[in-house]
Structure formats: structure tokens, C-alpha cells
Design goal:
The chain is an alpha/beta fold. The protein contains 7 helices and 9 strands. It has one domain: 3-Layer(aba) Sandwich (Rossmann fold), CATH 3.40.50.150. GO terms for molecular function: methyltransferase activity.
Length: about 240
């Protein structure tokens, strides 16, 4: 399976980054050797690569219908995770979050299957609706967050790394008690949460200082790992990357 490349000066395989937020995943793929185009429904002026503002699934459907999807070697998708998310079960139940959100994982997968391209679907650890082909953790990359994320690999495979032991706790308050530890909590605002600068350092993200974008982001180290695995597995020997 050979990655597509653009004509002219661009020799990198091109990746489509859906539900892109501010580009945590995109930056990792870029560092791995991809040219990246993003799409998100919100305005993302901090996104560091070419970007389309619009509904990600409508945009993907249009690319399939016109044949433009063939510009891409692979697609990454991080559909919103609030529907039924178990990461903060108590908060979700008390505030009515999760159940009212539309589950976008299944329709995302359906469209990705229609592309005929290899793909990656990312979801947090509280979701069980994707195949957990890879589970990555900040400690695997020496980061200041734990931030478990699961990845379903469509149309390709990669070696699943062993989950390493955490060095301690996530810093902050739990049920009124403060705990110290080597990791910061990359979500929310209260309970001893880190500053924006601490979040940037812990996640390895420098191009945005918007807290919401940082707390929604995938650390670039994760997708750099995935991107390199894809190129190693799917690029013919001697092909340009």
C-alpha cells in the first residue's frame, strides 16, 4: 500500500486531519513526515497547517463524491467524545453531559471505510466504541501528562507498545484532598489544574495558548509515533516520504 504523494515540490504523503481542533494530532503527523490538511467545525486560527472550516463528515463526503479524497494517503479522525463518555462519570451524570450528544464514531467509520484509504480513529480511554489497536500514554514519551488515548487502525496494522508504569499521581484535588505528582491534569479549570504554560510544557504544544484547545488536544508525540509506524509499514522501500 503506497502513500499518495503530491506532484511538484511536495513529496510528503498527504494526511487529512478531521475534527482537527488546534492541531495536536496534525503536528505529530507533520513531524513524522506527512503534509497535513485539517478540518474542524470551529474557527481554529492557531491550526498550523492548511485548514478547512466546516462540518468534518460533510467535508469528507464531498471529498469522496468528487474523487479529491485520492489526494490523501491516510485519514485521521478524532470525533467528539462527549457522547456516553465515562471519563468523568459523576460530572456527566450530575450535569446531564454525554447522553444528549450525537455519537459520531459510527458514521465517521462508515465514511472512512468508503474512502478505501487506511485511517486512524482516536478516542479517550472512557470510550469503548472503537477497536483499541493502540493505546498510548504520555509516560511512554516522557511527557508531563498521562492522557491515555485509544486508536483504531483501519486497513493497516502496527505493533502495540507495552503500557509502561506511571511514576506517580496526577497533580490536583480529588474529593477535596490535594495530591502531588509528576503529571498535570489536562482538562477543566478548577481543582488545582495547571496553568496554560504548564499545559504547553506537559503536552509538548507551543503554537496555541488557548486552554480549551490545549485540553482537547492529543500530544503530538502520540501521532508522531503512529505516523512513523504507518510509514514504516506501508511505504515501499525507496519511496519518497
Amino acid at each position: 500500500m503506497a502513500p499518495a504523494t503530491r506532484s511538484g515540490r511536495e513529496s510528503r504523503p498527504r494526511l487529512l486531519d478531521l475534527f482537527s481542533c488546534a492541531g495536536g494530532a496534525a503536528m505529530g503527523y507533520h513531524r513524522a513526515g506527512f503534509a497535513v490538511d485539517g478540518c474542524d467545525i470551529a474557527a481554529r486560527p492557531n491550526y498550523p497547517f492548511p485548514y478547512h472550516r466546516g462540518d468534518a463528515l460533510a467535508y469528507l463526503a464531498a471529498l469522496i463524491a468528487t474523487g479529491e479524497i485520492r489526494r490523501y494517503a491516510i485519514v485521521h479522525a478524532s470525533p467528539p467524545c462527549q457522547h456516553g463518555c465515562a471519563l468523568t462519570v459523576g460530572t456527566n451524570a450530575s450535569q446531564g453531559w454525554g447522553g444528549a450528544h450525537v455519537d459520531l464514531v459510527a458514521p465517521t467509520r462508515d465514511l472512512l471505510d468508503r474512502t478505501g484509504l487506511p485511517y486512524v480513529i482516536e478516542q479517550p480511554n472512557g470510550r469503548a466504541k472503537i477497536r483499541k489497536d493502540l493505546t498510548l500514554c504520555g509516560e511512554m514519551f516522557g511527557l508531563g501528562v498521562i492522557r491515555h488515548r485509544n486508536f483504531e487502525l483501519g486497513g493497516w496494522t502496527a505493533v502495540r507498545p507495552a503500557h509502561v508504569t506511571h511514576r506517580g499521581r496526577v497533580r490536583g484535588y480529588r474529593h477535596g484532598e490535594y495530591f502531588d505528582g509528576p503529571y498535570v491534569a489536562a482538562y477543566g479549570n478548577g481543582g488545582g489544574k495547571p496553568s496554560v504554560t504548564e499545559l504547553q510544557t506537559a503536552m509538548g504544544i507551543t503554537w496555541t495558548d488557548v486552554r480549551e484547545e490545549l485540553t482537547e488536544a492529543i500530544p503530538p508525540a502520540y501521532t508522531e509515533h503512529i505516523g512513523r509506524a504507518y510509514l514504516a509499514a506501508c511505504t515501499p522501500l525507496g519511496a519518497a516520504a
